[in-house]
Each structure stands twice: as C-alpha cells, then as structure tokens.
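Hi R.,

Here are the chain sequences for the assembly we discussed:
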Amino acid sequence: MKGWHVATIVALIGIIGLFYAGLGRDPRNIPTVLVGTAAPSFSGPNVQSGEILSFDSYKGKIIVLNFWASWCQECRLEHQNLLAINGEFRNYPDFVMLGIDYQDQPGDANGFLNSFGSSYPHIRDIKGTIAIDYGVYGVPETFIIDSKGIIRFKYVGPIIGPVYSQVTEKIIRPLLEGKEL
Amino acid sequence: MIIEIGYFAVIAALVVSIAGILAPLIGLKTGNPAWIRAGRQAVTANFILISLGCGSLIYSFLLRDFSVKYVVMNSNSRLPVFYTVAALWGGHEGSLLFWAWILAAFATLAAWIHWKSHPETMPYLLAIESSLTVGFLALIIFLSSPFERVFPALAEGMDLNPLLQDPGMVFHPPFLYLGYVGFSIPFSFALAALLSGRLGEEWIRATHRWTLFSWIMLTFGIIMGGYWAYYELGWGGYWAWDPVENASFMPWLVGTAFLHSVMVQEKRKMFKVWNLFLIIVTFSLSLLGTFLVRSGILSSVHAFANDPGRGVYILIFMSTVLILSFGILIIRSNKLKVKIEMDSVISRESAYLFNNLFFLIATATVFLGTLYPLLVDTLYGTKVTVGAPYYNKVFLPIVLIILILMGIAPMIAWRKASMENLRKNFLVPVIAALAGTVISAIIGIRQIYPLAAAFIVFFVAATIISDLYKNSSYWASHSGTSLLTGIWKAWYHNQRRYGGLVTHIGVLVMILGIIGSSAYKLEKTIILKPGDEFSLGHYSYKFQGLQDVQGINWEGAEALFNVYEGNNFIAEMRPQKRRYSGGSQMPTTEAAIYPRHMGDLYLSMTDITQDGWITVMAFQNPLIHWIWYGGGIMGLGVVLILFKRKRRES
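And here is the predicted structure of the full complex:
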C-alpha cells in the first residue's frame, strides 16, 4: 500500500464515521446554561479607548451584557435598539450596559461603532474566552444580570420587534424598580 | 389515478434499473452483445418511466389535486402556475425525483452518444449509471415518496415556502442539479476506464464536453443562488459561507481543478491517477452536497428542505459509492505506472500541478470550515459556528494565488520554459500590472486585498491581450491581411484556447465585482418614522410613508422612499414586508433595488412597529452587476469551446 492509499482510506473512514455520529444530533438544540447562576467575572480592554474594564467594578448593578461582532449581520439589525435601551435606562444609577466584541479585529469593531453609533462601553474578546465562560455559541446573544450578580435572562438572536418591549418592560424595568420578575 | 400511474412508473423504473445493472454485466461475462444492448434499452426505458413519474406529479400540481400529500405540502390554489410547476423541486421528495430524472436523462444521452465510439467501456458505464439510479429510486420509493395520498382529500394546500416563490428559485436548483448530476457521466466513464483497464486518454476525450457542460451549469447554479439570496433574503449580500452554499462550492472547486488537469493528460499523458482521483472526488462532493442539504446534519438557511430520518439512508448510499469508487481506484492504480516525469519546475505542466494543488487546498479549507462545527459537536458536545472571518482569512490568499496562476499557466511553455520565453511573455504584463496598481492606488484604492486584486486583474488581462495580439499579428503577416482578419484567424485556429481565455476574462470581471461590492460597500441600519430622512454615500433617502399592498397569494406593507442625489430626485424605492397566505405565515423581506452605475442602491425593511416606525437596512453595493456579467462571460467562453468546429482527422 502506498501512502496515498492509506490516507484516502483513513479520510473516508473518518468522514463517514463523523457523519454517522452526527446524524442523531439536532444542530439547533442549544444547551440552556447559566440562567439562574452567578455571572462569570471578566475583564478586558475597551474597544475604543483600550483601557482595561473589569466586571467586578460594576458589582451591585443591573447589567445588560450584549455579545456582538462587526461581521455579524443580525448584530447590525439590533444595534439601534440596543442604543435605544441604553437611552431609555441610562439615567438609572443602577443600570449598566456593556458590549462584548466577540472574535473581531479591533479596526473592524471600531469601524462598526463609528458608523452605527455607540453610547456604552465595549470590551474586546478577541479569543472568545469571555464568550466561552458565558456559553455563547454565536452572536448576537444578550444576558441580563441582576444586582446580586445572578444571570436572570438570556436571549439568543437580535433584540428586534416584540423582543424589544419584552426585554425592556418585563425584565429590565422590573429589575431596576426592585420588583420580582 | 394519474398519480398512481406515476408511482407505478417509478416502481417499474427501479426494477428496470436493477436489470440495467445486471444485463450489461452478463453481457460482459458471456460476450453476448444482446445483453449489453438490453442495458442501453434499460436506461432509455428508465428515462421514459421517470419522465412519466415527474409528469404525473406536475399534472397533479396543475390540477391542484389536494389528495396528493406532496401537492398539499408545496402548493395551494392561489399559487401562480409558474411556481406550481417549479414546486416539483420545491420540497424534499420532489427534488429527489427530479435528481433521478436528470440522472436517467443523462445516462440515456451518454449511452446513445458514446455507443459506437466506446464499445469496451459501455457495459460498465451502463451498469454504473444504473446503480446510481437504483440508489435514488429506492430512496424515493421506500422513504421519500412524492406520490403519497392523503385521505380524505384536503380543500386547500399549505403553499410553497414563500422564500421559494421567486424566479431565482425556479432556475437555481435545476442548474445546480444539472451540474451535480452531469458530473456523474465523467465519473462513470472514469470508473469504467478503471474496471475495463482502458486507462488511456480515451475516457478523458469522451467526457470533455460533459465536464465543461456540468461545470458551467454548476457555475450558473451557484451564481443564481447568490443572486437569489441577494434580492430575496434582504441582507444585502450574495454569499454567506452557509454550509449548503459551501456544499455546492466544493464540487465546483474540485471540478475546476479537474477541468484543467485533464489538459495535462491530453497533451503530456501525465496525471493519470490524479485525474481519476479528481473526478471521483468531484462527484463524491456532489453527492455530499445532496447529503448535507437533505439530512439536516448542519444548521443552515436552507433548512427548509431537510429530513434527518432519511439521512441514514443517504449516508449509506453515499458511503457505498465512496468506498466502491475509491476502492476500485486504489486497487487498479497499480496498473498506472507513468514513466514521464516533470522536465522542469518552470513549465506549463507544473503550473497546472500548482493550480490543482491550490484548488484542493481551497476545497479543504471550505470542507474543514463546513464540517468543523459538526466535528466539535460530535466529539465534545459543544456548539460552535464558523463564520465569514475564518473564510476571509484562509480563503482569500489562496484565491489570489490561483488567480496569479491563471495568468501564468496559459502563457508558459510545455515541458520547460526558457528564461527567454518567460521574459517575452511576462515582461509587458508585469509592467502593465504595476502601472495598473499604481493608478488604482492614486484613484483611492488603499486596502491590501483590493490592491493585490487590481495587480492580478491587470496582469492576467495583459497576458491575454498580448497573447491575442501576438497570435493575430502572426496570422495577419502570415496571410498578408489586416490585424482584424488576423484576430479572426487566431481565434479560428485556437478555439479551445481562446474560449478558455474568455472564461478567464469572465472570472476577472467577477473578481472586480466581488471586490467592489464587498470592500467598497456602504451600509447603515436605521429606525425611521414617516417624513424622516437619512443619507448614505452621495444619496439621501426620504421615507414618505407606509402603505398596504396585496398580491395574488400574499399581503404586506410597502415603505415608499424618495431617493435624491444631491438635490436631484432620481428614483422611488419601495421595500416590502410580505406575509404569504397558506400555512406558513412566514414574513418575507422584498428588498428594493435601484441599479446605478453598475452597482445597486439597496433598501430592505426589516421591522415595522405598531406606530408606524420602520427599521431599514440601506446598502450601496458598487460594481455588483459585474458579478453577474462575469458569470455571463464565463458562460460565453464555455459555449465557444462546446460549439467549436470538429477538427478534421489527419
């Protein structure tokens, strides 16, 4: 047997085996993790200024954490709505909104923020380690964390349409006003 | 009644195609030509029977016979006739039947065309094509029958998926299938060559036109898919590295490599095993494409047409084809000792070798990106996505190298190129390319990939022009006529070569379109209320208001925009949000596209709130038309080769 014979056979077995193992799985089945558990801590450089921001410094506040990337189409869709959420709640002393820029080139991320606007800080997550801690499997994803540091809500996909008022009226506002969800 | 006739015709076709495998093999064993003829009759009968099957299904669609499940699932009484016929391939079951039908049509054509010229390989070809038909027909009959009835009959159907109610969809799948299935003929010829031991250039010559035809069909299919995505999905782009897009791109890449490397075997009798390998991989990837789309193994925008239950069958079918064809190749390849070695690294054959190598690397990167999420999920249970950044990073550099080779390979000498030859052929193009790059930089192109692309486009274009000039002035002086006649003569004596170069020009035009529309695209997402205005690039858009609109089988809202360039009103644009009647209630986005200077102004309305605010994505896509033009020019080049005059036998 020559080298390429062996390589071809191994490749064939590998591919067929992979497909066989993958057939029973549902590609849209997302593991529900972390809602109701403590939000992982993180720190990283600000996308625009480069200064280091730390999750711990926001302790005790209600945090809206949005994972996004400049290469993500759906992130563009929701971006104006995120700015609107920040606009709506920024006057509450306990409200913080943070963006996590997931696996992005700094230049691209800055371009994105410059053209679509930015009113809250964004943290660079070039290697995706923050995203891994939060179990993010694709962008956009949004987490809402209460004053005790517990994740209370997670939304996969863009915050558009009816989701907007659901998030603002059913989650953020009650949390800020100290009500039970 | 009619649908049962179709059903029985397809069951009969399965029986006939089993006979179509056995008869030619018996003929081979016994040496009795009557059995082999029976094999040819079997493929022909197959084609007629499956045509009956497709015909009965189309008839039921046109009759709006909602006692047929497939008709219920994929149409309703208000669906326009155009889409009613196309609904044949709008769902899983029907598109498999359509596949089988094209397969039978091609097998029949090949059997009649090559009957006299390839008597030794014909029995194998018939048996292989019949086996493929058996695989598809068994799947259709036992697991995915489009001929099922529902009882009692329904009064109304569910409707065709709204995203598919578009002219692009009517043409995109058939072209892809013509490409996928077309490659089955060179594939069968290659296996027939291996089995019969006739391993010369015969099979390559026989399949040259089949390969070109399949390749251009696949090319058109992919481009039309991009065009459809561009104006129907409303995100302003045409290619998203979606797994199913990749599935059609991979056979295209390897098919392109094959198309080039066969020339080396024709001219220099090299690359024999390699060519067999390439065509087997090409067809395997076509089957893999079908598997990926139909099994639901990967998450994708094409998820409207899959079914995991049938995945197991398609996997078994695909594995059988893979194991048998690669097995035969491995066992028989020992017979293929090729003595001729490369004479020099700087020669056309080695340029083709590099071309092949990079096409395969490109395929491997797409393959890895497509299957990596599945691999990680299977091994670790973790969900990951591979997005555009991966492909842009690894794929673009490979494409640039392939493009450079596209300029070098056709102009370099076979066997061994001298320095003299290199200087003669490439001095002018290199100067032209440098000049072109400098000019591009001066007019404002600053990014690295667009500049590199500009260099390559000028370089390749200059090689083609200088080649044509040299050849035509040779013919002009040879026959003492004008340069124009010279061009005609150069063309006439080298149709295949210049057809190929025309296709290369098409690629260049398309590259410019891709660069223009991706690197210089402008975009903005914005929320507006009636009366609001925004600007993008040189244009400003005024949102006049919303109105209700209605079609035959949909209703929706339309936003009216007035578009101004400076103070001049230039156009009215009306993006829509539609909701189709029928079961799905899925809203679709109809982008408004206004062509301007070979690019597009593009508006797509993504969201409407109750109080009349809308969210709009606005794009400006410069040069995007060049992508479609480039596809057309590539097609023209292939047509020129396909219809070249037959050379007189000397």
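The first strand of chain B starts at residue 522 and ends at 528. The radius of gyration of chain B is 27 Å.

Let me know if anything looks off.

Best,
T.
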